[in-house]
Amino acid sequence: MKKILFVNPQILNKELYGDLGVAGSSAYPLGLCSLAAVARKHGYAAQILDARVLGMNLEETVEEIIKINPDYLGLTAVTITIDRVAEVAAEIKKKNAGIKIILGGPHLTAVPEETFNRFKSFDLGVIGEGELTLIELLQKLDQGEDLNEVSGLIFVENGNLKLTKPRGFIENLDDLPMPAWDLLPNLTKFYHPTIYSLNRLPSTHLVTSRGCPGKCIFCDTAVFGKKFRHFSSEYVMKMIKELYYNYGIKDILFDDDLFMGNRKRLVDICNMLIEKKLNLTWSCNARVDFITKDILSLMKNAGCWQIAYGIESGSQRMLDYMGKNTNLNQIKEVLRWTRKAGIRTKGFFMMGYPIETKEDALQTIKFATEIDLLDFQINFFTPLPGSEAYKMTADKKLKELAWGDLNFHTEPVFIPEKISKAELMQLNKEAFRRFYLRPKIIISYLSMVKNWGNFLKLLKGMQALLIFLLPKTHKKRKPVTQ
């Protein structure tokens, strides 16, 4: 039986979230769990090494891979981690060139040729959804057959890059096996959502759908596409029950881009949760244009305690620019409905769009503090490969940036024409200060404390916020200007 090892290379929360890293999430690599489950179903000995949560550095990660000595090594990368992943691949090639290294993930799918031209240690790349492509690829490799017959690949052939024809999306997600959670380090010990997105422990993430028809310019939909596809309500309940009964999970964040994309499925899931009477709470992400007033009370009765809305801006001009298809009055109304139903509200925002002015940013801060919102996150506009924003701003200057610098949490890499970098960073801090340092918000968080563990996590989050708000000297990095 041939072995395949899937690796999630290490990156620190501080690198991802800056001073707010202590409050950041530790989400399990769901994509690797799905790929490992598929590989195992087809007769491969699958393992997962999550170097990130285990705190393993480059040397330790490479040493463990060499020790396991897999036939195939599967690596995943988003844009901010691709350099780390390439380092792992390069070191493995030095120590054991016989291991076939397969790269997948959002970054490769967005810019496959650029990635393979920049990094020479990857043998093969899987573009798009990986489950079906991976199995066909492994079987062809085992049999020594032509890889050109496998859709969704990039590889080097006779010194030239070769892309096979694109692979279509998986139509029936229920055909996939259950995620291989058993191959991870202890699920309840190592993984959890952000401090601000968990109601109680043990808590974990779950993604129950793929694809989003939205037209937001900052999103990369290259891997899962624009068509909304979902696991059935019965399959979702099967996943929930396994997490609940086998792992003791008491709280779930449905981290779908569009959890409410199919109303009937949502109603069925809620009714099943009510019928099963599980001691389970949950939260989800949502778009305000997919919410109706009547669905919220059913969600509350089914255990929903928080909804995080992608609000993005308090300037209608910016909402129109980014293709959000929402308006400020609609946002206010949906938040009122949500709070009236007894569900906490969280808002995701972004500042630093190419045409944004200081007045637009100040409108966002003012809006966030006036609407019925109890939690808040604001990031910097960052044109990630695969997004419409990347195409709009992908000039020579942007391409000279290290991919690892394209982090929307820590500091801006793209500066609008009418706001300086210093102003943008100050506005970001001002947004956090004005939102969180209000009696209403502090009291709302204190009301969530149910035990000593909750209190310690809240204390860590507040400490991180205060450190973030303190003046400090930032590393010198030349951003891209409009």
Word description of this protein:
With 482 residues, the protein is of the alpha/beta class. It folds into 2 domains: 3-163, 3-Layer(aba) Sandwich (Rossmann fold), CATH 3.40.50.280; 192-481, pyruvate-formate lyase- activating enzyme (Alpha-Beta Horseshoe), CATH 3.80.30.20. It is built from 20 helices and 17 strands. The strands form 4 sheets. The chain has a 7-stranded mixed beta sheet, with helices on both faces. Mean pLDDT is 88; it is low at 473-482.
CATH superfamily of the largest domain: tm_1862 like domain
Tell me the count of domains: 2
Main beta sheet: 7 strands, mixed
> How large a portion of the residues is in β-strands, by DSSP E?
15-25%
**Strand sequence of the main sheet, in spatial order?**
2-1-3-4-5-6-7
The end-to-end distance, rounded to whole angstroms, is: 54 Å
Mean pLDDT: 88
Rg: 22 Å
Overall strand count: 17
| CATH-assigned fold name of the largest domain | pyruvate-formate lyase- activating enzyme
CATH architecture of the largest domain: Alpha-Beta Horseshoe
> Uncertain segments of ≥5 residues (pLDDT<50)?
473-482
By secondary-structure content and strand pairing, the structural class works out as alpha/beta
Share of residues in helices = 40-55%
The first-level CATH class name of the largest domain:
Alpha Beta
What is the molecular shape?
A: globular
Number of helices: 20
